[in-house]
Structures are given as structure tokens and as C-alpha cells.
Amino acid sequence: MRTDNRRWLRLLAVLAMVLLLGAACGEDAPDTQPSGGGEETESEEPQFSTIEDGVLKVGSCLDYRPFEFVKGGEEMGFDVELSEAIAERLGLEIEWVRANFDTIFTAVAGGGQFDMVAAASTITEERLQTVDFSDPYFNSRQALTINSEETPDIASSSDLGEGDVVGVQKGTTGKAWAEENLAPQGVQIKTFEAVPQAFTDLEAGAIAAVVNDEGSSIGEVENRPSLEVVEAIDTDEKYGLAFSQDNPELTEAVNGALAEIIADGTYEQIFTKWFPDLPVPEEFAAS
Fold first, then answer.
1. N or C: which end of the chain has fewer CB within 10 A?
2. In what order do the strands lie in the sheet with 93-98?
3. Least confident span in 38-47, 195-204, 237-246
4. Which of 3.40.190.170, 3.30.390.10, 3.40.50.10490, 3.40.190.10 is the CATH number of 55-137+240-284?
């Protein structure tokens, strides 16, 4: 009888220990049940990947003032500062990769050279067949620049005609506009790999005009006293940052960072620094 009592007491002790451990695990186990009708209560940051962990590799021509250029071995410009602000919001370091604008979209689409393109790139339906774009970050117009010492009689694109040569950058919407609107007037379109080369030819009197994005044209003529921007051409263009279509998570994350930069006034500060004579567009002003 005493033996049975001892067995009974041992069984009770074991049972009590099992219940105690079960209670402890119940307290420590995470609650895996979603709340709020199956939705997570905590907001989740978009998950994204980059070619190199912790680094945002950005492709750019780096020869398109005042958006992106190199001075004293340092990358600078509107696109550069905006991209650096975005990378900082995402907790990434930035690495700039020089690329040819004519092939820059197929390069980012391949996913092996860089994660993002920041090169004053206009969002177009044709380019959307190859890459994804961020939300727009800049309103752009085309502009006509002439050499006021060589051809002071050219005041607009309508003054161009048979025998005139107009410079454009290869692969740009400025080239497309010139081919569509000036070539039928008998104007010869000359393409350049980099836009500064076109302005250098214009300075030398080798061509009659340059069609190029307004912001870049303003930057180019600052140090070229013989050149003058004589016409702004409204083509309803907007710039976007370009990404591989295989990485929509990165596009989403950049859009989130861009929205924060616009809302808190960081965008406005960068814009005013590089375009002091232009008003900040309403859609990019701080909220």
C-alpha cells in the first residue's frame, strides 16, 4: 500500500511539472494568428534586393549638367543628390556606374550591371516595354539653343529650314522630337553620343542649333557665353528613375523614399539648389 502511494505521488509530481512547462511555453510562444480580419497589425517595409547587399548601384551618363556630372572626381548634380537621399532612406550606400545613354535601359533591364538608372530619363511608352519607372520626379521640356554670334536670326524652331543642321543626343526624346518636327522642314539631324559634344559643335559654328532638355540646356549655356536658349518646347515630359522589371520590390521601395523626400521638403531644397531660377512644381512641393 505504501508503494502504491509513492507511485501515485510520483505521478502527481510529473503531471504537475508537465502542466507547469505547458503553461510556460504558452506564455513565451509568439502569437501567429493575424488580427484585424486577417491583416497584420504592424505595417511591413517593402522587401527588396540589390545586386550587392547594402549597395545601390546607379547607372548614369554622368555628363548631363546640371542633373549628373563629375567635377574634381566627385559625382554631383540634381539627380545625384536626389539618388543619394533615396539611398540614405533605404539604408543603402550608393555606387555610380558610368553608362552610355543609348543602351542604359537594356543594361538595367538585364539586372547585372546596376540596380537603377538616374539619368534625366523621360518616361515613355516605348521605354516601359523594357524597364519599370519610378513615380515622376521632374517635369521636363525640350529647348532650342542657338549660337547668338553665328545665327542671331534664329529665334525659334520655325526659323530652321533646308540646309540647317541641328544637334541632338542619341537615344533621347529630343532626338525623336527633332526627327518628327524638324526633319520635315528640311533640317538635317546630327546625333551625338553625349550632349556636351553637341553644344561644343554649336559653339564652333558647326551646327545651327541644339534640341535638348531645357534644364540641361540651361546648365550647358552657363559657361558658354555665345550660346542662348531661345525657345522652350513643351512636350509634357516627366523624368523617372528606371529599374529592371524583374525587381518591382525595389521600384516600390524607391517610390516610398521619394514620397518621403517630397513631403518633408528635402526635394524642394535639392531642386532650389540646382534650379534657383525655376519655381518648384506644385506636385513636388513639401506638404
1. N
2. 93-98, 55-60, 116-117, 242-243, 132-133
3. 38-47
4. 3.40.190.10
Q: What is the model's pTM?
A: 0.76
CATH number of 141-235: 3.40.190.10
Residue 15's CB is within 10 A of a number of other CB atoms, namely: 10
Could you give the CA distance from residue 78 to residue 99 in angstroms, rounded to a whole number?
18
The angle formed by the CA atoms of residues 185, 217 and 276, to the nearest 5 degrees, is 140
In the three-class reduction of DSSP (H, G, I as helix; E, B as strand; rest coil), residue 17 is classed as helix
DSSP, collapsed to helix, strand or coil, labels residue 1 as coil
Percentage of residues of the chain with pLDDT beyond 90 = 79
- Tens-digit pLDDT profile for residues 152-197: 999 999 999 999 999 999 999 999 999 999 999 999 999 999 999 9
DSSP H or E stretch at residue 132: strand 132-133
Q: What are phi and psi of 19, to 5 degrees?
A: -65, -40
With H, G, I as helix, E, B as strand and everything else as coil, classify residue 169.
Answer: strand
* Residues near 251 by beta carbon (within 8 Å), at least 6 away in sequence: 132, 133, 134, 243
Return the residue matching grid coordinates 541644339: 210
SS3 72: coil
Q: What residues form DSSP beta bridges with 239?
A: 122, 138
Whether the Cβ atoms of residue 243 and residue 232 lie closer than 8 Å to each other: no
- The pLDDT value recorded for residue 278 is 85
Is residue 117 within 8 Å of residue 59, measured between CB atoms? yes
The torsion angle over the Cα atoms of residues 244, 77, 272 and 178, rounded to 10 degrees, is -70
pLDDT tens, position by position, 1-18:
444 444 444 544 444 444
What residues does CATH 3.40.190.10 cover in the chain?
55-137+240-284, 141-235
